[in-house]
Amino acid sequence: QVQLVESGGGLVHAGGSLRLSCTFSGPYFSHYVMSWFRQAAGKEREFVAAVSRGGSDVYYADSVKGRFSISRDNANKSANLLMNSLKVEDTAVYYCATGTPVPKSEPRHYAFWGPGTQVTVSS
């Protein structure tokens, strides 16, 4: 019913920037929070950022606050994650997630996930 596809991942040097995008296909885009999670090799999936249904409220993990910026475009049914001042520790597969009307930091609350996009930050 709902499909998410991420794009924009790649290889970047520490201190650089990347912009991730997530496109939504299906109904009721504006009913859902849009969120980003990431999972590094050998670690659990962790919350990165979320944006409210209307786009006016944003939430960030402490590890990325001040460096990452999340936004959404309800007209185009998409969400973006601008990542600045990237660190080696940001290396992970980044996933777009949706399906809850309120922001949640635990993956189990999200019904729909993209396949992920790899972000690798080199020193």
Task: Describe this entry's structure for a reader.
The chain is an all-beta fold and 123 residues long. 0% of the residues lie in helices and 48% in strands. The model has no long low-confidence stretch (mean pLDDT 97). Strand 7 (68-73) and strand 8 (78-83) form a beta hairpin. Strands 2, 4, 5, 6, 9, 10 and 11 form a seven-stranded mixed beta sheet that branches. It has a four-stranded antiparallel beta sheet with strand order 1-3-8-7, with no helix packed on it.
Backbone shape: globular
Q: So how many helices? A: 0
Topology as H/E string? Answer: EEEEEEEEEEE
Oligomeric state of shown chains: single chain
Mean pLDDT across all residues, rounded? 97
Secondary structure tally: strands: 11
* Terminal Cα span: 40 Å
Strand content: over 45%
Radius of gyration: 13 Å
Structural class: mainly beta
The percentage helix is under 10%
Q: Main β-sheet, in a few words?
A: 7 strands, mixed
Unreliable spans: none
What's this entry about, in short?
The protein is built from no helices and 11 strands. It has 123 residues and is mainly β.
Task: Chart the SSEs and their pairings.
Blueprint: E1 3-7, E2 10-13, E3 18-25, E4 34-39, E5 46-51, E6 58-60, E7 68-73, E8 78-83, E9 92-98, E10 112-113, E11 117-122
